[in-house]
Amino acid sequence: MNITRYKNIFLFAYIGIIIVGLALLFFFKPSFGIDFTGGALIEIRPKQPIELGQLRETIEGSYPDRGVIVQSSAQNQFIIRAKVPGGEFDQFKNKVVEAIPDAEILRHENIGATVGKTLTQKSIYGVILACILIIFYLAYAFRGIPGIIPSWAFGVIAVLALIHDLIFTIASYAVIGHFTGFELEGITVVAILTILGFSVHDTIVVFDRIRENLIKYPHLDIAQNTNNSINETLARSLNTSLTVIVVLISMYMLGGTTIKPFVLILTIGMAIGTYSSIFIASPLLVKYGEYIGKHSK
Predict the structure, then answer these.
(1) Average of pLDDT values for 83-98?
(2) Whole-structure pTM value
Protein backbone atom coordinates (compact mmCIF):
# COMPACT_ATOMS: atom_id res chain seq x y z
CA MET A 1 0.00 0.00 0.00
CA ASN A 2 1.80 3.10 -1.25
CA ILE A 3 0.22 5.93 0.73
CA THR A 4 3.01 8.48 0.35
CA ARG A 5 2.66 8.25 -3.42
CA TYR A 6 -0.68 10.05 -3.12
CA LYS A 7 0.47 12.52 -0.48
CA ASN A 8 -0.60 15.53 -2.53
CA ILE A 9 -4.18 14.21 -2.72
CA PHE A 10 -4.28 13.69 1.05
CA LEU A 11 -2.85 17.16 1.67
CA PHE A 12 -5.46 18.76 -0.60
CA ALA A 13 -8.09 16.79 1.33
CA TYR A 14 -6.53 18.11 4.57
CA ILE A 15 -6.91 21.72 3.42
CA GLY A 16 -10.40 21.03 2.06
CA ILE A 17 -11.63 19.50 5.31
CA ILE A 18 -10.37 22.49 7.29
CA ILE A 19 -12.05 24.99 4.94
CA VAL A 20 -15.34 23.06 4.82
CA GLY A 21 -15.23 22.54 8.60
CA LEU A 22 -14.78 26.25 9.27
CA ALA A 23 -17.62 27.03 6.85
CA LEU A 24 -19.91 24.55 8.64
CA LEU A 25 -19.02 26.10 11.98
CA PHE A 26 -20.00 29.48 10.56
CA PHE A 27 -23.40 28.29 9.27
CA PHE A 28 -24.12 25.76 12.03
CA LYS A 29 -22.85 27.55 15.11
CA PRO A 30 -22.52 25.11 18.04
CA SER A 31 -25.10 25.49 20.77
CA PHE A 32 -23.50 26.01 24.17
CA GLY A 33 -24.92 24.42 27.31
CA ILE A 34 -25.38 26.12 30.66
CA ASP A 35 -21.81 25.28 31.64
CA PHE A 36 -20.84 28.01 29.19
CA THR A 37 -23.89 30.29 29.03
CA GLY A 38 -25.04 30.17 32.66
CA GLY A 39 -28.39 28.99 33.99
CA ALA A 40 -30.09 27.29 36.92
CA LEU A 41 -29.33 24.06 38.79
CA ILE A 42 -31.73 22.35 41.17
CA GLU A 43 -31.19 19.01 42.92
CA ILE A 44 -34.31 17.24 44.18
CA ARG A 45 -35.28 14.02 45.97
CA PRO A 46 -38.92 12.93 45.39
CA LYS A 47 -40.60 11.14 48.29
CA GLN A 48 -42.10 8.59 45.92
CA PRO A 49 -39.74 6.66 43.60
CA ILE A 50 -39.83 7.97 40.03
CA GLU A 51 -38.12 6.86 36.84
CA LEU A 52 -35.58 9.18 35.23
CA GLY A 53 -37.40 9.14 31.88
CA GLN A 54 -40.73 9.99 33.50
CA LEU A 55 -39.19 12.86 35.45
CA ARG A 56 -37.47 14.18 32.34
CA GLU A 57 -40.76 14.24 30.40
CA THR A 58 -42.53 15.98 33.27
CA ILE A 59 -39.91 18.70 33.69
CA GLU A 60 -39.44 19.31 29.97
CA GLY A 61 -43.21 19.51 29.52
CA SER A 62 -43.51 22.10 32.27
CA TYR A 63 -40.60 24.23 31.09
CA PRO A 64 -39.96 23.63 27.35
CA ASP A 65 -37.40 25.36 25.12
CA ARG A 66 -34.98 26.01 27.97
CA GLY A 67 -32.44 23.29 27.27
CA VAL A 68 -33.53 21.32 30.32
CA ILE A 69 -31.17 18.51 31.34
CA VAL A 70 -32.22 15.96 33.97
CA GLN A 71 -29.59 13.62 35.42
CA SER A 72 -29.63 11.03 38.17
CA SER A 73 -27.21 11.88 41.01
CA ALA A 74 -28.12 9.07 43.43
CA GLN A 75 -30.94 6.61 44.10
CA ASN A 76 -34.17 8.54 43.51
CA GLN A 77 -32.20 11.79 43.52
CA PHE A 78 -31.90 14.04 40.48
CA ILE A 79 -30.14 17.16 39.20
CA ILE A 80 -32.10 19.48 36.92
CA ARG A 81 -30.29 22.11 34.85
CA ALA A 82 -31.75 24.67 32.46
CA LYS A 83 -30.81 27.81 30.52
CA VAL A 84 -32.64 30.26 32.73
CA PRO A 85 -31.68 33.96 33.15
CA GLY A 86 -31.03 35.11 36.70
CA GLY A 87 -34.33 37.00 36.86
CA GLU A 88 -36.32 33.85 36.07
CA PHE A 89 -34.64 31.56 38.59
CA ASP A 90 -37.49 31.68 41.14
CA GLN A 91 -40.03 31.09 38.40
CA PHE A 92 -38.14 28.02 37.20
CA LYS A 93 -37.84 26.72 40.77
CA ASN A 94 -41.62 27.12 41.25
CA LYS A 95 -42.26 25.24 38.01
CA VAL A 96 -40.18 22.32 39.26
CA VAL A 97 -42.06 22.32 42.59
CA GLU A 98 -45.40 22.37 40.75
CA ALA A 99 -44.34 19.50 38.49
CA ILE A 100 -43.01 17.36 41.38
CA PRO A 101 -44.91 18.63 44.47
CA ASP A 102 -43.64 15.92 46.82
CA ALA A 103 -39.96 16.54 46.01
CA GLU A 104 -37.47 17.78 48.57
CA ILE A 105 -35.13 20.44 47.19
CA LEU A 106 -31.61 19.56 48.31
CA ARG A 107 -29.89 22.50 46.69
CA HIS A 108 -30.52 25.22 44.14
CA GLU A 109 -27.95 27.41 42.41
CA ASN A 110 -28.01 30.21 39.91
CA ILE A 111 -24.96 29.70 37.66
CA GLY A 112 -23.96 33.15 36.47
CA ALA A 113 -22.61 34.05 33.04
CA THR A 114 -19.19 34.83 34.53
CA VAL A 115 -18.81 31.15 35.41
CA GLY A 116 -19.57 30.22 31.81
CA LYS A 117 -17.08 32.77 30.49
CA THR A 118 -14.36 31.50 32.82
CA LEU A 119 -14.99 27.90 31.76
CA THR A 120 -14.83 28.89 28.09
CA GLN A 121 -11.50 30.65 28.56
CA LYS A 122 -10.03 27.77 30.55
CA SER A 123 -11.18 25.31 27.87
CA ILE A 124 -9.40 27.29 25.14
CA TYR A 125 -6.29 27.70 27.27
CA GLY A 126 -6.32 23.98 28.04
CA VAL A 127 -6.33 23.04 24.34
CA ILE A 128 -3.58 25.57 23.51
CA LEU A 129 -1.44 24.39 26.43
CA ALA A 130 -1.89 20.76 25.37
CA CYS A 131 -0.70 21.58 21.84
CA ILE A 132 2.37 23.45 23.13
CA LEU A 133 3.31 20.59 25.46
CA ILE A 134 2.89 18.11 22.60
CA ILE A 135 5.39 20.06 20.48
CA PHE A 136 7.93 20.21 23.32
CA TYR A 137 7.48 16.55 24.20
CA LEU A 138 7.95 15.32 20.63
CA ALA A 139 10.89 17.68 20.06
CA TYR A 140 12.55 16.11 23.12
CA ALA A 141 11.54 12.51 22.37
CA PHE A 142 12.80 12.66 18.76
CA ARG A 143 16.02 14.53 19.48
CA GLY A 144 19.07 13.21 17.67
CA ILE A 145 17.03 11.66 14.86
CA PRO A 146 19.20 11.03 11.79
CA GLY A 147 18.53 12.97 8.60
CA ILE A 148 17.67 16.56 7.83
CA ILE A 149 14.27 16.73 9.52
CA PRO A 150 14.54 18.60 12.86
CA SER A 151 12.93 16.96 15.89
CA TRP A 152 10.59 19.91 16.51
CA ALA A 153 9.02 19.32 13.08
CA PHE A 154 7.47 16.09 14.36
CA GLY A 155 5.70 18.03 17.12
CA VAL A 156 4.51 20.82 14.83
CA ILE A 157 3.17 18.34 12.25
CA ALA A 158 1.39 16.37 14.99
CA VAL A 159 -0.30 19.60 16.13
CA LEU A 160 -1.27 20.48 12.53
CA ALA A 161 -2.97 17.09 12.31
CA LEU A 162 -4.67 17.79 15.66
CA ILE A 163 -6.05 21.08 14.35
CA HIS A 164 -7.55 19.15 11.45
CA ASP A 165 -9.07 16.64 13.89
CA LEU A 166 -10.53 19.33 16.16
CA ILE A 167 -12.12 21.32 13.34
CA PHE A 168 -13.62 18.21 11.75
CA THR A 169 -14.90 16.87 15.08
CA ILE A 170 -16.44 20.11 16.33
CA ALA A 171 -17.93 20.94 12.91
CA SER A 172 -19.50 17.47 12.63
CA TYR A 173 -20.82 17.74 16.18
CA ALA A 174 -22.26 21.21 15.44
CA VAL A 175 -24.10 19.93 12.36
CA ILE A 176 -25.47 16.88 14.19
CA GLY A 177 -26.33 19.02 17.21
CA HIS A 178 -28.31 21.39 14.95
CA PHE A 179 -30.73 18.55 14.20
CA THR A 180 -30.58 16.60 17.48
CA GLY A 181 -30.31 19.42 20.02
CA PHE A 182 -26.91 18.30 21.38
CA GLU A 183 -24.98 21.13 23.03
CA LEU A 184 -21.37 21.83 23.90
CA GLU A 185 -20.98 21.30 27.63
CA GLY A 186 -18.19 20.86 30.12
CA ILE A 187 -18.17 17.10 29.51
CA THR A 188 -17.67 17.62 25.76
CA VAL A 189 -14.52 19.62 26.54
CA VAL A 190 -13.26 16.55 28.39
CA ALA A 191 -14.05 14.50 25.27
CA ILE A 192 -12.11 16.94 23.07
CA LEU A 193 -9.05 16.75 25.34
CA THR A 194 -9.35 12.96 25.28
CA ILE A 195 -9.37 13.08 21.49
CA LEU A 196 -6.20 15.17 21.55
CA GLY A 197 -4.46 12.52 23.63
CA PHE A 198 -5.68 9.60 21.53
CA SER A 199 -4.82 11.21 18.20
CA VAL A 200 -1.33 12.20 19.35
CA HIS A 201 -0.75 8.70 20.72
CA ASP A 202 -1.65 7.18 17.35
CA THR A 203 0.54 9.69 15.51
CA ILE A 204 3.49 9.02 17.81
CA VAL A 205 3.24 5.29 17.11
CA VAL A 206 3.68 5.96 13.38
CA PHE A 207 6.36 8.63 13.90
CA ASP A 208 8.34 6.37 16.22
CA ARG A 209 8.40 3.63 13.60
CA ILE A 210 9.54 6.21 11.02
CA ARG A 211 12.37 7.17 13.39
CA GLU A 212 13.41 3.53 13.77
CA ASN A 213 13.38 2.97 10.02
CA LEU A 214 15.36 6.15 9.35
CA ILE A 215 18.06 4.76 11.65
CA LYS A 216 17.85 1.21 10.28
CA TYR A 217 17.61 2.10 6.57
CA PRO A 218 19.50 5.37 6.04
CA HIS A 219 19.91 4.58 2.32
CA LEU A 220 16.14 4.91 1.77
CA ASP A 221 14.57 8.33 1.35
CA ILE A 222 11.97 9.80 3.70
CA ALA A 223 9.04 8.78 1.47
CA GLN A 224 10.07 5.12 1.34
CA ASN A 225 10.79 4.91 5.08
CA THR A 226 7.51 6.63 5.91
CA ASN A 227 5.50 4.37 3.62
CA ASN A 228 7.13 1.26 5.10
CA SER A 229 6.43 2.56 8.61
CA ILE A 230 2.75 3.17 7.82
CA ASN A 231 2.31 -0.34 6.46
CA GLU A 232 4.03 -1.82 9.50
CA THR A 233 1.76 0.01 11.96
CA LEU A 234 -1.46 0.14 9.91
CA ALA A 235 -3.02 -3.05 11.27
CA ARG A 236 -2.23 -2.10 14.87
CA SER A 237 -3.71 1.39 14.49
CA LEU A 238 -6.88 0.19 12.79
CA ASN A 239 -7.47 -2.68 15.21
CA THR A 240 -6.97 -0.45 18.26
CA SER A 241 -9.25 2.27 16.92
CA LEU A 242 -11.97 -0.09 15.73
CA THR A 243 -12.06 -1.76 19.13
CA VAL A 244 -12.61 1.59 20.85
CA ILE A 245 -15.15 2.77 18.25
CA VAL A 246 -17.22 -0.43 18.54
CA VAL A 247 -17.43 0.08 22.31
CA LEU A 248 -18.40 3.74 21.85
CA ILE A 249 -21.11 2.87 19.33
CA SER A 250 -22.52 0.32 21.77
CA MET A 251 -22.53 2.95 24.52
CA TYR A 252 -24.27 5.42 22.24
CA MET A 253 -26.99 2.95 21.26
CA LEU A 254 -27.57 1.45 24.70
CA GLY A 255 -26.55 4.28 27.03
CA GLY A 256 -28.65 7.03 28.52
CA THR A 257 -29.54 10.32 26.86
CA THR A 258 -27.18 12.36 28.99
CA ILE A 259 -24.02 10.54 27.82
CA LYS A 260 -24.90 10.52 24.09
CA PRO A 261 -23.24 13.88 23.28
CA PHE A 262 -20.06 12.81 25.07
CA VAL A 263 -19.96 9.43 23.33
CA LEU A 264 -20.82 10.95 19.93
CA ILE A 265 -18.00 13.49 19.95
CA LEU A 266 -15.56 10.83 21.17
CA THR A 267 -16.57 8.48 18.34
CA ILE A 268 -16.11 11.16 15.68
CA GLY A 269 -12.79 12.23 17.17
CA MET A 270 -11.41 8.70 17.46
CA ALA A 271 -12.26 7.95 13.82
CA ILE A 272 -10.80 11.15 12.37
CA GLY A 273 -7.78 10.89 14.68
CA THR A 274 -6.92 7.48 13.27
CA TYR A 275 -7.35 8.77 9.72
CA SER A 276 -5.17 11.84 10.30
CA SER A 277 -2.33 9.84 11.89
CA ILE A 278 -1.99 7.77 8.72
CA PHE A 279 -3.17 10.00 5.89
CA ILE A 280 -2.39 13.51 7.18
CA ALA A 281 0.54 13.55 9.63
CA SER A 282 2.72 11.14 7.64
CA PRO A 283 2.22 12.82 4.21
CA LEU A 284 2.89 16.20 5.86
CA LEU A 285 6.16 14.84 7.24
CA VAL A 286 7.17 13.49 3.83
CA LYS A 287 6.29 16.75 2.11
CA TYR A 288 8.30 18.76 4.62
CA GLY A 289 11.25 16.35 4.39
CA GLU A 290 11.30 16.60 0.60
CA TYR A 291 11.06 20.39 0.82
CA ILE A 292 14.07 20.58 3.16
CA GLY A 293 16.02 18.12 1.04
CA LYS A 294 15.38 20.11 -2.14
CA HIS A 295 16.41 23.45 -0.62
CA SER A 296 19.41 22.06 1.26
CA LYS A 297 20.88 20.91 -2.02
Answers:
(1) 74
(2) 0.81
